[in-house]
Amino acid sequence: DRAAGDACAAALSPQSQQIYAATVSSKPTPDAARGVVVEETKKMIRAGALSPLKARSAAEAAGRCLALITK
After folding, report:
1. At what angle are helices 52-69 and 33-46 packed, to 10 degrees?
2. Is residue 59 pLDDT above 90, yes or no?
3. What is d(CA 54, CA 15) in angstroms, rounded to the nearest whole number?
4. CA distance linking residue 41 with residue 56, whole number of Å
5. pTM, rounded to two decimals
6. Separation of alpha carbons 10 and 30, rounded Å
7. Phi-psi domain of 27 (left: phi exceeds 0; alpha: psi -120 through 50; beta: other)
8. How many angstroms separate the CA atoms of 7 and 54, rounded?
9. 7, 22, 45, 54: least surrounded by Cβ within 10 Å?
């Protein structure tokens, strides 16, 4: 349910929101979503927009919201 995913994402940190938005915009299949989240997170780390220390928690938070879309 996209509305539930978006509502969940609204409460995320800015970094998690960015991961969520980038993943949703690429319209991945449920099986591919995890890979997209990982790649977006890596891009943000390389760009200096996300600390490697906070990357996992940011990606996991975005993933929880993305999971609502596929339910």
Report:
1. 150
2. yes
3. 9
4. 8
5. 0.92
6. 21
7. left
8. 22
9. 7
List Cα–Cα distances, 46 to 35, 40, 43, 50, 66, in angstroms.
Answer: 17, 10, 5, 8, 23
Residues 9-52 pLDDT 10s: 999 999 999 999 999 999 988 889 999 999 999 999 999 999 99
Q: What is the C-alpha to C-alpha distance for residues 31 and 10, in angstroms, rounded to an integer?
A: 24
Residue 5 identity (one-letter amino acid): G
Both tokens of 11, joined, read 């409460």
Q: Classify burial at 53, counting beta carbons within 10 Å of its beta carbon; exposed 0-12, middle 13-18, buried 19 or more.
A: exposed
The pLDDT of residue 51 is: 96
Task: Identify the residue whose tokens are 């609502």.
Answer: 68
